[in-house]
């Protein structure tokens, strides 16, 4: 038996963002304060001007060059409270990729639960719902819009981990494929591959169940169309729409199940070298043929088909300190590793084997 939750509502389709902005103007006037986390790409856009025109909107530009951190979330809450005291915002809106979306979720959680962000890294540690939150993805793939986590780097503890909780689900999504039109080609591919990898991992895990499998299969079918079989460019209008749906479904699949071997290794790369999640996933995926042979073959074909090249030789000069960070940053992710390899995963993934795999990246 399985019990779970998904995002309760969404608005989908071209033009959804325009409708949302009308609602935003109307809804905010007179009701209370609001926080908007906006990706840095939009800092000089009409969208920013429109959001800034509301005096009681606390606008935070999310510099997604750095993945969200526990410290960054604590700072946003402190700044908000310095301006508004204990008055809670009526809504938090995240507009951007996984970084802005996760930042919005984490700020909402912290405002609802108090303390520091790192207190809630783990599973089901949040005790109360946060502030009502709206997610507006501008790049497709992480599924952060639909998942029940928000992933944060904790520099003090040297780890990257999510606040995994039903309270990390958005309350509403605005899914407008027009927003992804401007995403650079490589980034579009790397982030899109996050959906592919989530679903491959989910379908190969022990925590499978029929609903998550159905989400994953359809998301994989859409990814295959976008990156592998479509006669159009991967960023055509139709493919951007397909990928937005795939991302949502992939996030819903993960909200219902768990990732596998790729994500823990990817987190190791992020902790040791600061490589971003989606690029790190792709670098790892290229070495995973012993765990996911068919998917790796398809992944390599999609790289070639879309003329994407991966960086190589990243771990070629691994000193003892980096090796330790890589190993610890990977093996700490017990749940996904056990999902993929069973409770005895440490005997399969020995330190030697982990470092050998990294040395190929
Ligand atoms: P991102 O948010 O890090 O953004 C990547 C780049 O794309 C940035 O330079 C950003 O400015 C740019 N960008 C965003 N939208 C754009 C647009 N419309 N046009 C042009 N440029 C645009 O990207 P991401 O890959 O979506 O997210 C990665 C983050 O997501 C990581 O922090 C990762 O840990 C997190 N993540 C979360 C989950 C989850 O379930 N919560 C799952 C996977 C990954
Ligand atoms: Zn991911």
Q: What would you say this structure looks like, in words?
A:
This protein is α/β, with parallel strands linked by helices and 361 residues long. Helix content is 49%, strand content 12%. The protein has helices at 16-28, 46-52, 70-84, 98-113, 185-203, 210-229, 237-256, 262-273, 277-285, 293-305, 320-331, 334-341, 345-348, 351-359, and strands at 10-12, 34-39, 57-62, 91-96, 122-123, 133-137, 151-154, 159-164, 172-175. The chain has a six-stranded parallel β-sheet with strand order 1-9-6-4-2-3, with helices on both faces. β7 and β8 form a beta hairpin. α3 packs across α4 (98-113) and α5 (185-203) packs antiparallel against α6 (210-229). The chain is globular. Bound molecules: nicotinamide-adenine-dinucleotide and zinc ion. Zinc ion binds at residues 142, 194, 198, 263, 277, 281.
């Amino acid at each position: 038996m399985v019990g779970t939750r998904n995002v309760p509502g969404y608005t989908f389709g071209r033009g959804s963002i325009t409708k949302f902005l009308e609602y935003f103007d109307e809804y905010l006037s007179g009701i209370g304060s609001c926080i908007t986390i906006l990706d840095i790409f939009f800092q000089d856009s009409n969208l920013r001007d429109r959001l800034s025109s509301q005096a009681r909107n606390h606008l935070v530009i999310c510099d997604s060059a750095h993945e969200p951190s526990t410290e960054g979330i604590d700072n946003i809450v402190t700044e908000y409270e310095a301006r508004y005291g204990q008055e809670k915002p009526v809504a938090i809106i995240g507009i951007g990729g996984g970084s802005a979306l996760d930042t919005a979720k984490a700020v909402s959680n912290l405002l609802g639960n108090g303390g520091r962000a790192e207190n809630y890294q783990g599973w089901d540690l949040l005790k109360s719902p946060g502030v009502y939150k709206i997610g507006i993805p501008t790049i497709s793939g992480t599924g952060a819009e639909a998942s029940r986590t928000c992933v944060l780097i904790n520099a003090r503890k040297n780890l990257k981990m999510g606040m995994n909780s039903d309270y990390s689900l958005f309350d509403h999504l605005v899914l407008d494929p027009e927003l992804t039109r401007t995403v650079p080609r490589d980034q579009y591919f790397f982030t899109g591959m996050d959906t592919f990898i989530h679903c491959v991992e989910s379908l190969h895990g022990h925590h499978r169940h029929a609903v998550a499998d159905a989400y994953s299969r359809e998301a994989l079918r859409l990814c295959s169309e976008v990156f592998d079989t479509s006669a159009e460019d991967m960023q055509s209008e139709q493919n951007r729409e397909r990928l937005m749906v795939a991302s949502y479904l992939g996030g819903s699949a993960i909200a219902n199940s768990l990732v596998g071997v790729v994500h823990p290794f990817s987190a190791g790369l992020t902790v040791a070298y600061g490589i971003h999640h989606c690029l790190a996933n792709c670098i790892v995926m290229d070495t995973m043929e012993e765990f996911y042979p068919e998917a790796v073959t398809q992944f390599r074909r999609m790289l070639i088909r879309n003329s994407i090249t991966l960086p190589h030789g990243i771990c070629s000069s691994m000193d003892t300190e980096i090796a330790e960070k890589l190993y610890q940053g990977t093996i700490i992710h017990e749940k996904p590793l056990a999902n993929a390899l069973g409770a005895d995963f440490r005997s399969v993934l020995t330190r030697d084997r982990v470092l050998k795999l990294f040395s190929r990246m």
